[in-house]
Amino acid sequence: MLAVKSKETGRDRDSAGDELHRLLSSFNRKRLSPGLPTPSWRRDIDEMAALLWLEGEFLEAQRQAVRESASAAPVDPAGFTAWFESLKINGPGQGDPLFPWLAEKCSMEEMKWFLTQEVAGEAGFEDLTALTQVKLPTRAKLELARNYWDEMGRGNARGMHGPLLAMLANRLGLEPRDETTVWESLALANTMAGLAANRRYAYHAIGALGVIEMTAPERAAATAAGLKRLGVPVDDRHYFDLHSVLDVKHSLAWNAEAIFPLVSANPNVAYAIAEGALIRLHCGARCFVRYRRELGC
Q1: Burial of 69 (0-12, 13-18, 19+ CB in 10 A)
Q2: pLDDT of 68-126, one tens digit each?
Q3: What DSSP designation does 199 have?
């Protein structure tokens, strides 16, 4: 039986976190969505400036929390890449017991709750990659372009990764909304959007996106196994089946063609990449802890 008593009573009581991340979630939808000029553009800029201050304070607090750990990373290209790859084993949130439980024990109701949180916190990897690649050096830019093309189904609408996840959500009748999403999931999406949308965090975004590719396959495989166990058809669970395999290839290429050459060209970016990776892992770890508390597993 799902441990969440209701969408309301199961929500986190940290009102400050709730308020901040619902505000930033609305802000990110607005700033990243196509629009048209309006007579209120001056007021819009003023409102955006205030929200950018809030976002900046939030992101800087996250940087401060991981700074000591990130400073231990080597700055030579081979050493840094090895350190980065070790996060797959010893990084925050790795090996969390949530995922074996999803694979082997959860009910369909519990799986739907988990997926609703995940869909609500999905920032859109293809869009984040497109934002991050702006003005990067050629080798890294090309790797991000290849990754983006895969995310876009290599030009085939039916193969686009975002719509595959949306299709699963639709087939399962999920209704992701900010007001029914735990703040930790919204914080993850807000973090990724903030790193990718602000050029001062471009190298942080490289680390955050790279660590997603590197650590996602095991979680995707466990989720796919749970969906299969619960009788979800193979076509509907294709998003997770795909990412359990494809992201392994993406991770190897990202580390070799983006991270290694960027650190080779400028060792100073190593700390920013390390901070971004650790920030993303800590965001994920907070989500897993909250999910387990809500689900009682």
Answers
A1: middle
A2: 999 999 999 999 999 999 999 999 999 999 999 999 999 999 999 999 999 988 889 99
A3: G
Tokens of 191: 């973090």
In the numeric block, which tokens belong to residue 95? Answer: 């090996």
Two structure tokens written together for 5: 């008593």
The residue written with tokens 């400050």 in the block is 16
> Nearest-CA neighbor of 285 among 181, 192, 188, 205?
188
- What is the model's pLDDT at position 2? 46
Strand boundaries in 99-236, DSSP class E: none
Residues 6+ apart with CB under 8 A from 43: none
Q: Which residues contact residue 151 at a Cβ distance below 8 angstroms, ignoring those fewer than 6 apart?
A: 125, 126, 129, 160, 161, 162
- Check residue 185 and give its pLDDT: 96
CA distance 107 to 114: 11
Asked if 151 contacts 125 with a C-beta cutoff of 8 angstroms, the reply is yes
